[in-house]
Please model this.
Amino acid sequence: MIKKRLRVILFMTLSFVSVLHLPAKAFAQELVANESLDEWFYSRLLWGAVIGVITGLLIGLADLCRLKFAVNGSLHINNRARRKLFIWIGIMFVFGAIILFIDAWLLYPFGILSLTFSDATQVWLNYRMLLILLVTITVFVFVVAIATRFKSGCRCRYAFIPGPKGK
Amino acid sequence: MAENYIIAIGGTGSRCLEAIIHLAAAGLFQTSMHVLIIDPDQNNGNSIRVRTLLTSYHALHLAHQPRGAERKKTLIGWEKLPDPVILQPSFNMKSGNSNEQHPFFWHNPNAAQRRFGEVIQYQAQSDEFKKFLDLFYEPNDLEMVLDVGYRGRTNVGSVALKQDLEGTRNTPQAGLLEFLEKLNIDLQTKEARVFVMGSVFGGTGAAGLPTIPQLVANLPTEVMALDNRARLRYGCAMMTPYFAFPKGSNTSSGPGTDSARHSVATQAALLHYAHVPPNYQHVYFIGAPERPQTNSYNFAGGQNQTNDPHYAEIVAALAAWQFFSLREIQPGERQLHFADTIKDKKDLGVNWETLPFNLENSGNRDKVKRLLTVFTTLAYFYKNFLYNRFINGNLYRDANWYKDNFGELSLDNDIPQLQQLHDYSNSFLIWLAKIGETSQHANLRLFDRNALLETDIALADRHVGSLLDDPMSGGSNRSSAGFDNIYARLDKLKLRQPGTNSAVGLFLFMLYCAVSEFCHENYSWKSKDR
Model:
């Protein structure tokens, strides 16, 4: 239990430090104009929110609401649902970051430039990327909470939004 | 509606009553009942077991389940749920709002060490009359201590029992007075039915079966008016030899019992009944071709005489059910019922297709199977998966179904009833498993007896969806993870309002709904009737 807590604290600290070290201005700014970066950011922010809604619905309804009750232990699966949500957040974070990198490197047309791998890395290592991921994950968590709470007969309906208190 | 009256005579009668209680708990009987266990062996193990069972049953019966409950539909709106099914009929409930019961055991006020010679006042008789009595009784009989009943001696029992019963007719709290009073009240306005169960091979049962109608017939008219008596209908389950026990030896207090004599004793008793018919409108003649040992030792009586149950007792309970559900019984009607498992010269064994059920309605066969299966699954589920979690840590508090439905009700206050539910479930499952054990030679196929007593929780999870042993539903896609399947149904159940003041009653009702729904799907039962 203590080991687990230490791991969480370590993870949070490292995440925080890494955010602090993100350059306020992209190294690629010399290559890519600020306006282009903002355009990329806003268009991907919207897509991130949409993906957050879709994955939130899918994971909330198809996975978390259908978690199996265990023959032993507690008579609810709220804790398991919360743990599973953290795992999904981690997966979303990693995959989201990879997708954003591929997007910046291969898909999005920054003016007439075709970015090299190292240039794309510099564009990607930007607070904007982190913001997009944060918005996506926030929307994802919000949708999961709403979907699990209001889906009729969801097995973890009180995991994220508390329900009535049993006496 | 008039109550149904049941008299269980002797150890065998008690065991038949045990089957009736279990079938009533499963929902087969719906009308309240008044029972009287008549056993001169006041500490007989079989009747003690039934008395304990009746106490547990009563505690659970008092946990009122909601009527007219409505559940939330999947999308929108509410749907009505069926009324409660299990544990509904009351036993020996006093009238009014009281939760108290009339005694269900006949208390014999006589000294336990009384000898039969004292009952008939042998020593006080003239020499001439003594010689006459000697024609009927051996010296052993006269010296027999009646502490453990009549030890298979019908000639002793027929005299002693009649005399003792008549002696307690006016004794409050002895059971018989309350039984007759309640019967008389019911008879003022409507027909009442009395079902008597006992063996025809033992001392108490064979003596008691013809004694009961005679006892009522001889009542003074101020106790029961003649008009009332005319509204009385009698049925009985005559249990012929269906079990055995090891041979015993004579003791200082009297002769031992010997199951090898059962067949001869039955013949003698039946011959007597043929000449002097007991006044029963419907007689159910029940026995079994194989006679397994239901006790490893020979006990003439007393608390050690606890025999394992047998399927013949379920048949006796079904006979009572049929008798009580008959539409009309004419006073002069005389019917003898019997059935066997032979079809086209082939023994089909004892299964859901051959158990003798109410022949007036063939749909009942399915009904009995379903009710028993649902109740067995419920008892199994509660005992294996819920009880420990309820008692150790009150884990129900965080469960969704509890938060959604219990509101002001709390299971915290009903821990003793939860304990009773566990004890009852355990007794029921042991009873069912033992029936499977004692009926091995009868090719019995009702439930999977090996699964019933499983205590490993992982294995129980696999078995809970396969408890029913029925070739007719063998093709169904049975769940191999029954716990999740049933618990998920309980978890999503949301009632419009609790509809009861009893937390255990509400829990039982909800669990029954979940288990019933599961069984219908698991065993591919077609009908929507739940």
